[in-house]
Each structure stands twice: as C-alpha cells, then as structure tokens.
Design brief:
Length: 323
C-alpha cells in the first residue's frame, strides 16, 4: 500500500478507472507487487491486469508462466500470459529484457493502460548502481533506475527484497525461483551474491540503502542540471541541413563537464544516440582542439566543424565509425 502511493493517475470511478498493467514473473518481488496492487486498486482508483511474459528460454517455461498467472488470480487480479521470441542482440539477458519490455508495451497499448508497474526493489537499484560504476558509465550510472519513466512505474524502489519475500510467505503464495538468479555467469548475480555481501561485511550494514539514496540524490541533481542545460541549448543551437548547428563559443567557454553534457544531450535528443565517453571526447576535441581536422563519425551521427559552428547530422552510410 505504502509503495503504491507514488502512483499519479487521474481519479475516476467504475469502468472509467484507468487501466494499469502489472508485470509479473512469478518471483517474490512481482507477486508482492501484484498483491499490493490488488489490495490498493479500489483506493487509488485503478483497474489492474497482470501480464506474465513467457520468454520460452527455460524448460517448462509455459507451465511456470501459467502457475504465475494462477498465483496472481488467487491474489485477486486478472491475468494474461504473453509468449515472446527472444532473438535480439546484445547477449541473452539484454535480448530477453528487450523482448519483455516490448511485450509489456504492447500489453499497455492493448489494454489502453495508463501505467505499467514493475517490481524492481531497493536491492535491484543498489545492484544497478554498482554495475554502472564497474562499467565506467560515469555519473549517469549513479542515477540508477527512475521511479517513473514515461508510463513505467517502479513503486517498490524503497522496498527491500527481504520484505517482498516475507510478504508472499505471509500470503501463503509460493514464488518461482528463477535459476538465472543463482547463475554466477551473470554479472548481476555476482554483485548480488558476492560483492554486496562483502561490502556489508567490510563496511557495515546499510550499503544497499546508501547506494539507493545516492541514486535518488544523483537523479535529482541530474534532472535539475539537464533542465537548465536544455534551456541553454535552445539559446546556442539552431536547425541546420539534416541536423543541428551549435555555437562553438559557449561550448568552449564553459567547463568540460557542461560541454560534454551538452554534446550528449544533443546526440540523444536529436538523434536518439547515447554517446560513450570516447565518442563524447572526440566530438569535444572539435571545440577545444580544432586545427582544421575533418568530421567525427560516431554511431548514428556525423559531427563536423565549420568556423564557429559545430554541425550534427545523421551519419552517412558507409562512414568509418570511431571505435
């Protein structure tokens, strides 16, 4: 109940109440979310339906999905099982995640849902922050997962995994134990079972909570910073042929952190591209170390300098990309 107070939906009654999709895997976290949603649905004015995604990656996955649906129905929610084909790139974990989110997005469209609820917990947040730091993702990794991203809502980001397990045990519901959650070939599993316990043992309890607090503070700072930068970008950018032109003067006059963030925001906002640090620094060199060199090609974008303007355009086919 407490965790769902973050929902911000237009109040209505009866059939006019907004639909909400609850993502359920059959694990303790998602079953606890389903139970909390069923309990709070009338109070917060929603009509929930649980969507169980069958990835088809494990033996008896269909039976597991059906058991999850039965468990959800016993908690008082309607449920559906959606089968997907996992065949994307980026490794099996990333491909499964992409297929799952696509299925949830389709479910939201099919049910005309205002929100999709996800069962990520405080522990998931802590793991996400540590993984981001280990990958060298910069300050952006400290933000972790947002409580609200579009219509995706994570009401349990302040709830420990131990609490969700205790909740389903009290309800008498048997959660599914995903074997992938104990497979240490996955980096997230190693963080969960090895890294965090060592940090707790060596630095004292409360590491997961501290990481989650750090994520929340970093997200607040980043959102405020990005909002100010977006206003600044409007002043120094103008439309150009097949792209955007940026005034070099303000870029060179500002600190590197601001300059790099502007470059990343332009790339993401105009072209939907997330730049690595290597790519960002290469583009920034056109501002701070320009001696007539040619354009920089990164995935999806070609950036060139013409006098006092930096020109961002969609990458030409066949361009040699900066690795």
């Amino acid at each position: 109940m407490r965790a769902l107070s973050s929902l911000r939906l237009d109040p209505a009654e009866g059939e006019d109440r907004p639909r909400v999709v609850v993502a359920v895997s059959g694990g303790a976290d998602s079953l606890a979310l389903a139970a909390a949603t069923a309990h709070a649905a009338s109070e917060i004015g929603i009509r929930p339906i649980a969507t169980i995604v069958d990835h088809g990656l494990q033996p008896a996955s269909t039976e597991v999905a059906q058991r999850a649906a039965d468990a959800v129905r016993s908690l008082g929610l309607d449920a559906e099982v959606v089968s997907v084909v996992v065949d994307g790139g980026g490794g099996p974990e990333a491909a499964a995640r992409s297929a799952r989110y696509e299925a949830l997005d389709d479910a939201a469209e099919r049910w005309d849902a205002s929100a999709v609820l996800l069962g990520h917990t405080l522990d998931d947040q802590a793991e996400t922050v540590l993984l981001g730091l280990a990958r060298g993702s910069g300050s952006g990794s400290l933000k972790g997962m947002a409580e609200v991203t579009g219509r995706l809502i994570r009401p349990f980001l302040s709830v420990r995994r131990s609490e969700t397990r205790a909740a389903v045990a009290e309800l008498g519901v048997e959660p599914w134990e995903d074997p992938h959650n104990t497979d240490d070939s996955f980096a997230r599993v190693r963080v969960r079972t090895r890294v965090l316990p060592v940090l707790e043992a060596e630095l004292g309890p409360g590491i997961a909570e501290a990481l989650a607090r750090t994520a929340e503070q970093a997200r607040e700072d980043a959102e405020a910073f990005d909002e100010m930068i977006e206003e600044f970008i409007e002043e120094i950018c103008e439309p150009a042929e097949a792209g955007l032109s940026v005034d070099v003067g303000p870029l060179s006059a500002n600190p590197a952190a601001l300059r790099h963030r502007i470059i990343r925001l332009v790339a993401r906002g105009e072209f939907g591209v997330s730049l690595s640090r290597t790519h960002t620094l290469a583009i920034a060199a056109l501002v701070t170390d320009w001696h007539g060199q040619g354009p920089v090609d990164v995935p999806g974008i070609r950036v060139s300098r013409n006098g006092r303007r930096l020109h961002f355009a969609a990458a030409e086919s066949g361009a040699t990309l900066l690795e």
